[in-house]
Design brief:
The chain is built from 5 helices and no strands. With 175 residues, the protein is an all-alpha fold. It has a domain of 78 residues. The protein is elongated and about 125 Å long.
């Protein structure tokens, strides 16, 4: 290919698009609107949000890990101490909800294991089955037969009766 090109033979076609770099004394209105928006609206909002985030980072509050202090059991309340009765009842309800969630989590783990193992579930999920049996037995021992309207007092009486029956069975076995 020859070094000297014939520029007249290969002319550059004329451009039809206007030049983007206009040189005028009037600023671009879009740039002006963006600048005004950034300084008037965006900058204050960003400043306030960052300030709030800094304040929240100093003292984090995890609402899903709320910890209640343990209150005395119903058996430890004095006679006529209705506030203690109320707190013990609320504590019992929280404990019951926690125990229900524990049973549900163990049941979900067993279901996931059965789903994962398929036909081999009886030998590969034996540990989960045993754990579910233990957890449901403990839940049934504590809260079973209380019904929907069960409360801390009836639960305490149930436990007392169960302990008395166990002592009687021990006394009969030792004789």
């Amino acid at each position: 290919m020859p070094e000297d090109r014939d520029w007249e033979a290969y002319k550059v076609p004329p451009t039809r698009t206007p030049d983007s770099e206009r040189i005028t004394s009037v600023p671009n209105p879009i740039t002006l609107i963006q600048t005004v928006f950034n300084y008037v609206i965006d900058a204050p909002v960003t400043f306030v949000r960052e300030w709030i985030e800094r304040q929240q980072a100093k003292n984090k509050f995890y609402y899903y890990h709320q910890k209640f202090r343990r209150v005395p059991d119903l058996s430890e309340c004095l006679e006529g101490d209705y506030l203690c009765f109320y707190e013990a009842e609320a504590q019992w309800r929280r404990d019951r909800m926690v125990d229900q969630e524990i049973v549900e989590i163990v049941r979900e783990r067993l279901g996931a294991c059965k789903q994962r193992e398929g036909p081999n579930q009886f030998q590969n999920c034996a540990k989960e089955m045993e754990q579910l049996a233990q957890v449901t037995k403990a839940y049934q021992d504590r809260y079973g037969d209380l019904g929907v309207h069960g409360n801390a007092r009836t639960c305490l009486m149930k436990q007392k009766h169960r302990m008395m029956e166990e002592r009687k069975a021990q006394a009969k076995a030792s004789q």
